[in-house]
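Quick log. Single chain, no ligands specified.
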Amino acid sequence: MKASELRKLSAKELDAKLLELKDELFKLRFQEAINQLENPMRISAVKKDIARVKTIIRDIELHGTDA
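-> predicted structure:
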């Protein structure tokens, strides 16, 4: 997901997206542990998405919703 798409979301939607991504990362790590992971690159993609969401949430905290 691109940062420009994430910036259009509200704070509540960003929190929900963060929880969704963390849950997906947990499931991917579990699949990796039991050797059923089909696409190992998906883990790094989800981690980057989590970082993007956290960055935008922090930006909103510092500069407000108009930034």
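The mean pLDDT is 92.
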